[in-house]
Design goal:
Elements: H1 22-26, E1 30-34, E2 37-41, H2 51-67, H3 70-79, H4 83-88, H5 95-108, H6 113-121, H7 124-131, H8 137-153, H9 155-163, H10 166-175, H11 181-194, H12 205-208, H13 212-221, H14 229-243, H15 249-254, H16 258-266, H17 272-286, H18 290-298, H19 301-304, H20 307-316
Antiparallel strand pairs: 1-2
């Protein structure tokens, strides 16, 4: 599911008679990067001194995209021909403009497929890839979020993101121990989107396995604290999705992740979603051969399982019968 660059947007929020004056907006200055300076130019290419007016215009558009339902905000911005200008702002040398642009691209990409395609066609992906590793954490997080919205839209855009090197960049973020927690969390969400089995055609197992080392590292190194639940959920959901692509159970065992998954479902602080996806991975293993199932058993799975799930596994194999069960 696409995410907007705001924490909450309620369904009842409406702006009566939203109107974007296309003539006014199309004649606000555009920002072009040149010789390490930001030159403010109007549509005719004339030097503009109205930088304050431009900042106000950018902020106004950004707030509209954040605060109102997509039908009342995204399409008017597209209709006004502003998407290329928004995407161009990603290359500004002004950090505030870059953050604003990344936020606007994120929100436009949270709309329909056609709306998401508008930022891709305007050339947003290469800029977002570069900004995903920016030193500014807010900028990096927002750029990663925008890439996630694009990736989640369709198989075609998922593939476009991959072909332009963004999946590799996201995995580098996860492998880098200095990455900020909030950027890492969004990066895990992008990988879960990349592996989404609902996108047709599905990824091949060969493509999906590229993400496996980063996913395993993230699960192993993330503590099950309340602040980490989303990151754990995205990581384990991604692993579950790789399992569903018929990952070799031996490959799963060899990652060394099985004891950690059992530990997580045994931990009372783990969220329901974390437990659900961990059980999906362990169930996939348990329904393999006796030798494969024994790995889960030796890690303590029977004792950690809810009674009804244990009974289901016991009906398949006597290996899951434990004293007193």
């Amino acid at each position: 599911m696409a995410q907007q660059a705001v924490d909450t947007i309620t369904d009842h929020e409406r702006l009566a008679g939203l109107h974007i004056d296309a003539h006014t907006l199309l004649n606000t200055p555009s920002v072009l990067a040149a010789d390490n300076q930001v030159a403010l130019l109007d549509r005719q290419g004339n030097q503009s001194i109205h930088s304050l007016a431009y900042r106000i215009a950018v902020d106004k558009i950004r707030k509209r995209l954040q605060e109102y339902p997509s039908a009342q905000s995204i399409q008017p911005v597209i209709n006004a021909g502003l998407v290329p200008d928004v995407v161009a702002l990603l290359e500004s040398h002004d950090g505030d403009f870059q953050i604003a642009a990344a936020s606007m691209v994120t929100n436009i990409a949270s709309g329909s497929s056609q709306q998401t395609c508008s930022v891709v066609e305007a050339g947003a992906i290469p800029s977002l890839r570069r900004l995903a590793t920016a030193a500014n954490e807010e900028l990096a997080e927002t750029a990663v979020l925008a890439l996630g919205n694009i990736t989640a839209d369709s198989a075609a855009l998922r593939d476009a993101v991959e072909k332009q090197g963004c999946v590799e960049t996201i995995l580098d973020i996860l492998q880098n121990d200095t990455s900020a927690d909030k950027v890492r969390r969004k990066a895990l969400w992008v990988i879960a989107c990349y592996l989404n089995p609902g996108l047709t055609p599905k990824l091949s197992l060969e493509r999906a396995k590229v993400a496996l080392p980063s996913i395993i590292k993230s699960i192993q190194e993330t503590l099950p604290t309340p602040g980490n639940m989303d990151a754990l959920r995205y990581a384990i959901e991604a692993l579950d999705r790789i399992c569903r692509l018929d990952l070799s159970r031996l490959d799963l065992i060899q990652t060394g992740i099985v004891p950690k998954l059992v530990q997580l479902i045994s931990d009372s602080s783990s969220s329901v979603e974390v437990c659900k996806h961990a059980l999906g991975c362990l169930g996939y293993l348990a329904w393999g051969t006796d030798l494969e199932a024994e790995v889960a058993i030796n890690a303590g799975l029977p004792a950690a399982l809810p009674a009804h799930l244990l009974q289901e596994l016991q009906s398949k194999s006597k290996l899951f019968w434990i004293p007193g069960s």
